[in-house]
Amino acid sequence: MVVVVAPPNPIRNEKIQAVDLPIIDLSAERFQVRKLIVKACEDYGFFKVINHGVPKDIISTVEEQSLSFFAKPVSEKQRAGPSDPFGYGCKNIGFSGDMGEVEYLIFDTNPISIAQRSKSISNEPTKFSSAVSGYIAAARDLACELLDLIGEGLWVPDTSVFSRLIRGVDSDSVFRLNHYPHLQNKQDFCKDKDTSSSSFSSDISKVGFGEHSDPQILTLLRSNDVGGLQISPQDGVWVPVPSDPTALWVNVGDVLQAMTNGRFVSVRHRALANSSKSRLSMAYFAAPSLNACLSALPEMVTPEKPRLYKPFTWAEYKKTTFSLSLGENRLNLFRISSNDECFMD
């Protein structure tokens, strides 16, 4: 079993570094915005967007309702689980034994499914499901706009080549609410079925969600005013991400790295639990349909930059993701080793 923990002090070869991360104002001139997005995706695989258009009232309702749920007694929260993969989960991350100081709710993006699941989550299920579905719709629209801007910025002939993958009703996109209780709370915030984690004392269990990259195309992340997110632009270097509840952070995912033939980087990141304040984040993971066939765009492949990754379907990549521990580099398993070819519709 892999248990995600962190020492009380940074490990010997780990460096914390302050960096001015890219901030992109979506109300600026379009040609400037697309240029800045492409550069941010190349340099960091990560950037902040302001004036993003996701309604503040929807964000506030989702946050308020989510915090009310996570404040409930353990027995009540467990009625919304277990996460299989949707529903409530606690400490367990994925299917390979990874753990962290986090509890969460995971939803597919179907409004009917969300409405049904909300009955075991909220005392006001209609209000909760309406807000979550509204947030997902706004996040999807924003993700599509960002992906279209990326298509324009890369000067590909079909600028909707990325956004088309997530627009359809068969998109495998996911919405996740993560709650990281503060570490001063000595009461166990969930009954972890796997008691092996109890051997780790609270002074070292500071990783809320361990180091990883997101497997999907793009992630939109919003959190409350509590910090904890860090990105790793290079091995052994961690950059703290300042909290800003009015903005959204955008992660490049593995699929987008593969489709740009490595020009964009799927950023590795983690979340640390805060010593005195609880952190709540909401993440929309934009993913294609299961049968979507994914490969580097022809415009991204040149004699000087040959194809790096074998083509794969999202179902194949997702299965690989679930079979590995959280921190493993999944894309390395798809490094090109033959002349297999695959073409998207």
From TrEMBL:
The keyword Metal-binding applies. Pfam families: 2OG-FeII_Oxy, DIOX_N. Its EC number is 1.14.11.13. Keywords: Dioxygenase, Iron, Metal-binding, Oxidoreductase. The keyword Nuclease does not apply. Residues 170-288 form the Fe2OG dioxygenase domain. Pathway: Hormone biosynthesis; Plant hormone biosynthesis; gibberellin biosynthesis. Signal peptide: none annotated. GO terms for biological process: gibberellin metabolic process. It is an enzyme of class 1 (oxidoreductase). It catalyses: gibberellin A1 + 2-oxoglutarate + O2 = gibberellin A8 + succinate + CO2. Belongs to the iron/ascorbate-dependent oxidoreductase family. GA2OX subfamily. This is gibberellin 2beta-dioxygenase. It comes from Pyrus ussuriensis x Pyrus communis.
